[in-house]
Structure formats: C-alpha cells, structure tokens
Q: What sequence folds into this?
C-alpha cells in the first residue's frame, strides 16, 4: 500500500512524513553509536585481558625460571588460552566495526542524501501546484471583477435608456461601455475557465501521480532503512556467533589444563629438586661424663697423665680437657729428615718403583734458612681455600651429590648441542671448500682455512669439556650408587665423603682423586704448617659431635667416626670446613655439615647451629 493523504491536509501530512523519515535516520545513527560503544568495550576488554596475561606470564630470561610444576604449567596454559580468547574479542570488535558500524555509517549518509532529494521533489511539486492555483485564482478574481464592472455598465445603460431627459449620445455611450465590459467579462471568463481546467489537471496529477510517487519513494527508503537495521542486528549477532567455536576451544583448553594438574608429579619434582643424596644421621650415642671424674681421681703422675691423655674418651666436655692437651704447653715437632736430592724429586711406591714428584721439604728447608726474629706470617690455608672455592664452582662440588649430578648432566647436554652445531658448521665448510676446489671461479678454498681451523679448535675444546664433565658425572654417579650400601654405624668409616670440598680445593669423592699424585709425608706437612703458624696450640672455643663418619684422606683434613667428640679451635669461615682437634692433639679440618657444633657462651661470636 502507498501512503495516501487527504487533500485538505496535504501540507501537514508532508511535514509528518518529513519528521518520520528524519526520526528513522536519527534512530539509525543512534544504533550506530550503540555499536561503536560496544566495539570500544570489546577493544578495551581485549586490551585489558592481554595486559592481564602479560602481567602474569613469566619472563623467561633463563631456563631455570621455566615452569616445571604441573600446576604452574597449567596456569600458563590457561594464560595462553586467555590470550587467544582476547584475540577472539578483538575479532568480534573488528567484525562489528567492518560489517555493522561501517555499513551503518555509509548507509546513513546515502539515506540522508536520498531523503533530501525526495523531499526537494515533493516541495517542488507543491510549489508548482501552488503556482497553478494562484494563476487560477487571479483569473477568477479578474473575471469576477469584470463581471461586476459589466453589471454596473448594464445598470447605467438601463438607467439612461429609461431616462427621458437623457440624450441619445449618452445612451449610445452607455451602450458602448456595456458592450465593452461584457466583452471583457467574456474574455476573463474564458481565461478563468482555462486556468481552472489547467489547475484541476495539475492538482489531479499532483495528488494522484507526483505526490504518490514521491511518497512511494520515501516509503521504499524507510523500508530499506528498516531492512538495513534488521541486517545489522543479524550481523551484530553473527559477529559474536562466529567466534563461539574458537572461544569454546579456548575454554576446553582451560579445562584440559586444569585436568593436567598432577599433585604427585609436582611432589616428585620437589623431591628431585631438593634431594641432596646425603644419608640421614644415625642415633646419638650415650655420653658418659663420669669416666673423666674417675680418671682424674686416679691420675697421680705425669707418666700416667700422658698415658691417660692418649686413651681419654672423645666425648668428655671441653672445659675439663683444655689444660690436658699438651703437658709442656707446646706441640712436639717431628724432626725433619736430611735434605737429599731423592727426597726433593722422587718418591717410592710400595712395589719399589719411583716417580717424579714435588715434595714440600725444599720449602721447609728454605723457610728454616730465612727465619728471623720478625713476627711469623700467617698460614696460606685461607688463600688455598679461596682458590678451592673457585675451582669447586666449575665442577659444582659445592653442591650436594644429587644436585651436582643434575647440574653436570645439564652442562653436558648443552656442550653436546654446541658440539653438534660446530660439527654441522665444519661439514658445511668442507662442502663449500670442495665446491670451491671444483669451481675456482666461485671462490678461493684457502679463504675457508682459518674458519675451518677455528671450528676444529672449538670442537676439540668442546670435546675436552665434555670429557671432563663426564668424568665428574661418572665420579658422582659411582659414589652415589655406592652410598646406598652404607649403614649408620660408628664402626664403618672407610667410605668416601660425598659432595664435599677439601681445604686444599679438590673434590673429596675419591681418595685417589683427592690426592693428585703420590701421598705426601705427614711429618713434612705438619712441619711446613708449623713454620707459618703460632708455636702455641690454638685454644678450644667449643666442641662438636660427628653426625657422619669422615675418612679425611686429604691433606689438612681430620678423620672422625660417627658420634666422636672433638674440640673446635676455628669456626667455619664460610667455605664449609671447621677446624677441630682431638684430645691427643691431632688437628685438621672436618666438613661443617657432618658435625653438630656447640660453641662456648663466653667465646666471641658463639653460635650453636647444625
């Protein structure tokens, strides 16, 4: 149906259609504004989601910081899925901006142009009809005026014609005026009839042809606007529906990540990460403090004191035994053997063979020659311990056995990858060299020789590093496997200390590897140390109890049995070793983690720790 209007209120209805079409365009623009704000919400939502993911995602600067626990891996997978979800929200925003908002803005512009054109056509048709009506009305008024003038002329003629006193000339003049007015009235009548006929035709055309056509165009325009809104509504929903399958996959990925959390696996990772490989401590032995009281009562002579000092139980208190360490207040020094060339450069093995070695006797001999009355220089042991700490960082001997094994295995894997890269580079250089030799115009084969030499050097270096680390790894794995047969007993002390650094800087996994060469004579070592240390023995600052047995094969170390009590004469300086002394005067370093230390309260900086 075409919009039809009554003739009498054509102006009002046309204005009503003008307002209605304007309201339709305003409603279209309002919906476009709604879509724009929805797009901004989607974009801000996606941006905030991405910022949230970026905030909680780990910054993987190193492999050690990579997530290992299943709960952490699941959380990071959820973050990845959430990041994909944010991407889908951006897709929704882009689809709405392109398919809905952009289309609405373009259509609104075209709709305004079309509406303006139709309204202008309607106004032109109305103006033309008004012009026809004015022409008809003017002709009508002129005809009416001429008719009145003709009537006046007729009345004047009749009055003069009936008047006996009027002259014939006046009557003729009135008659001529009447004929003129009658003729003019007839002409205006014809003009009015023509104008009326023309106006009626234009009015019929206006209301039955022109205006219905314009209204039909406005109606079609408004219906297209409604259809476009319907399509935009559908596109608005389709933009969301298209991403629903992908969003569902993101949510399914989050559910799968939640299901992948394995608490037992995480617990096993914790165990593997902090597993040290050390044996748990054994039972504490009974400490009989009454034996010292009974021996003190029976001591009567110096010779008896000497004999008892050698047999005294190691579990007595520190304060009671301080004055009985050395009867004459000074540690006896063994006499140095005569300095001979053999003692300087050779050493004998049990089967009679000799091999070249470096003895410390020349150093002792030279130091005896340059002795003066100046104060003695302190011991070099602290310097050696610093060097040993640096060496320990290379082979990870400062770590527990299990952690050391893992670090070595990781380093071997990395070196193998580097070796593979260098090997591939060598093969590529060799192939390129062969091509250059067959086709000299492509390049000089000699130009590749420096790069080949550098690559070969890198390969040799990497192989040496791998061999060295594999030796350390086999050493750790061998000792870790052998430690499973050890029992907690104070009588078994022949096993090797695991994962400890000796004061000399070598790793004490094996006695054969601790001593890099033939064993040195202990008498010379003690004499060498005494030349750099004070003559008087150091005072005891506390006591300790051995938690684990320690063999003490390295120079400067002190062997101990599980449960044995020793005197502390020097605290741990941070290198993991504590200097201790037996009651018979034998001194040396023991691992701090192998003992339970108790310092005297009156000693400076006394601390009790394990």
A:
């Amino acid at each position: 149906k075409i919009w039809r209007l009554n003739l009498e209120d054509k102006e009002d209805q046309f204005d009503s259609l003008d307002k209605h079409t304007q309201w339709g365009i305003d409603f279209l623009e309002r919906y476009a504004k709604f879509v724009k704000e929805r797009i901004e919400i989607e974009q801000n939502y996606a941006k905030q989601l991405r910022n949230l993911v970026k905030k909680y995602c780990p910054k993987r600067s190193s492999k050690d910081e990579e997530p290992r626990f299943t709960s952490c891996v699941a959380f990071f997978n959820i973050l990845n899925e959430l990041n994909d979800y944010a991407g889908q929200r951006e897709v929704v925003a882009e689809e709405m901006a392109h398919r809905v908002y952009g289309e609405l803005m373009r259509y609104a512009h075209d709709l305004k142009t079309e509406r303006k054109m139709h309204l202008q056509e309607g106004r032109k048709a109305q103006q033309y009809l008004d012009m026809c009506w004015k022409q008809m009305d003017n002709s009508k008024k002129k005809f009416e005026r001429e008719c009145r003038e003709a009537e006046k002329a007729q009345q004047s003629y009749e009055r003069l014609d009936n008047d006996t006193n009027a002259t014939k000339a006046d009557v003729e003049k009135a008659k001529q005026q009447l004929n003129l007015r009658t003729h003019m009235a007839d002409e205006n009548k014809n003009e009015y009839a023509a104008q009326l006929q023309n106006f009626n035709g234009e009015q019929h055309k206006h209301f039955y042809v022109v205006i219905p056509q314009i209204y039909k165009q406005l109606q079609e325009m408004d219906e297209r606007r409604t259809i476009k809104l319907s399509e935009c509504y559908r596109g608005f929903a389709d933009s969301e529906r298209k991403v629903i399958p992908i969003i569902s996959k993101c949510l399914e990925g989050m559910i799968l990540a939640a299901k992948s959390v394995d608490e037992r696996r995480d617990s096993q990772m914790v165990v593997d990460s902090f597993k040290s490989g050390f044996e748990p401590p054994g039972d504490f032995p009974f400490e009989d403090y009454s034996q010292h009281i009974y021996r003190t009562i029976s001591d009567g002579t110096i010779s008896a004191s000497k004999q008892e000092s050698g047999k005294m139980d190691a579990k007595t208190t520190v304060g009671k035994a301080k004055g009985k360490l050395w009867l004459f207040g000074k540690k006896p020094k063994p006499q140095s053997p005569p300095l001979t060339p053999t003692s300087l450069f050779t050493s004998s093995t049990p089967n009679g063979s000799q091999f070249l070695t470096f003895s410390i006797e020349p150093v002792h001999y030279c130091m005896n020659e340059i002795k003066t009355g100046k104060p003695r220089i302190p011991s070099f042991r602290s310097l050696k311990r610093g060097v040993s700490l640096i060496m320990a960082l290379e082979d990870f001997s400062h770590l527990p056995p299990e952690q050391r094994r893992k670090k070595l295995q990781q380093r071997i894997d990395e070196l193998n990858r580097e070796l593979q890269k260098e090997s591939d580079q060598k093969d590529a250089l060799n192939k390129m060299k062969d091509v250059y030799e067959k086709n000299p115009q492509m390049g000089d084969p000699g130009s590749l020789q420096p790069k080949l030499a550098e690559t070969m050097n890198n390969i040799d270096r990497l192989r040496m590093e791998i061999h060295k680390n594999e030796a350390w790894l086999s050493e750790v794995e061998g000792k870790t496997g052998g430690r499973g047969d050890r029992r907690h007993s104070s009588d078994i002390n022949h096993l090797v200390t695991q994962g400890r650094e000796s004061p000399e800087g070598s790793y004490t996994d094996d006695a054969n590897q601790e001593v890099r060469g033939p064993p040195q004579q202990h008498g010379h070592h003690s004499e060498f140390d005494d030349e750099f240390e004070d003559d008087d023995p150091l005072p005891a600052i506390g006591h300790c109890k051995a938690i684990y047995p320690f063999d003490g094969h390295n120079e400067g170390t002190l062997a101990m049995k599980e449960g044995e009590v020793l005197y502390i004469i020097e605290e741990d300086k941070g290198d993991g070793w504590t200097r201790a002394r037996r009651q018979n005067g034998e001194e040396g370093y023991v691992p701090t983690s192998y003992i339970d230390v108790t310092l005297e309260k009156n000693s400076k900086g006394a601390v009790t720790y394990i």
Observations:
- Residues 160 and 188 are 27 Å apart (CA to CA).
- Confidence is low (pLDDT under 50) at residues 1-8, 300-384, 484-535, 603-610.
- Strands lie at 346-348, 354-356, 542-546, 565-570, 577-581, 587-591, 595-599.
